Amino acid sequence: MTFDMNYKAIIFDLDGVICHTDHYHYLAWKQLADKIGVYFDETINNRLRGVSRMESLEIILERYEGEPFTSEEKVSMAEEKNAIYRELLKEMSEKDLSSEVKDTLDQLRAGGLLLGIGSSSKNARFIMGQIGLGDYFDAISDGNNITKSKPDPEVFLKAAEYLKVKPEECLVVEDAKAGIDAAHAAGMDSAAIGDAFGYALSTHHLSTFSDLLKASGVR
Ligand code: BG6
Ligand code: MG
Fold this sequence. Notes:
Helices cover 42% and strands 11% of the residues. With 219 residues, the protein is α/β, with parallel strands linked by helices. It folds into two domains: 9-19 and 96-215, HAD superfamily/HAD-like (Rossmann fold, 3-Layer(aba) Sandwich), CATH 3.40.50; 22-89, DNA polymerase, domain 1, CATH 1.10.150.240. A six-stranded parallel sheet has the order 3-2-1-4-5-6. Strand 2, helix 6 and strand 3 form a beta-alpha-beta unit. The longest helix has 19 residues, at 71-89. It starts with 8 loop residues before the first strand and ends with a helix. It binds 6-O-phosphono-beta-D-glucopyranose (BG6) and magnesium ion (MG). Magnesium ion binds at residues 13, 15-17, 49-50, 175-176.
């Protein structure tokens, strides 16, 4: 292990990077979509990656052909979806955190890096508790402390502020193109994984999570 590192901190998106909640989001939105009679499938669900809850609802309603819903109705639909989603999240446990992810995080920390979360989700702390990472990160910036969703840089700039580092000292790990755009807008390097792999704007591309050791300069 060398200590010739490129960054002081790594900021991780949660959903699709540290763990996988897409299917739970899908099941919860699908239940709501069926109830109001609007078509919804996994392809549309993929468009919700990194997008806030209310913006996700707007994407789902693009196919809705009935009378427009009022703002109050939309808020209540989003709350209904979230209640279903939270019930599903109770099924998550430490088995939903892969040993590759946990070992890599431990090595990054041992290499002297600060580790933060930059997630659009208001359920981020609950999810981290479920998978056994409740107290793990040095700072958490999530859907509860932002007013603008990715691709706006706010969530990552707040994470850097909480970690007490400069934006240019951070590397963001993301599975959503909107998240890579947000990192870029924040003046941070990014590492794309999963759905975002190959996205031209990202600094590094991770075939697998442990590739982060090389991208960050820890190994
Ligand atoms: C992001 C997910 O992490 O959080 C999105 O990728 C989701 O799909 C967003 O819409 C908001 O989540 P929550 O838990 O606040 O409804
Ligand atoms: Mg994500």
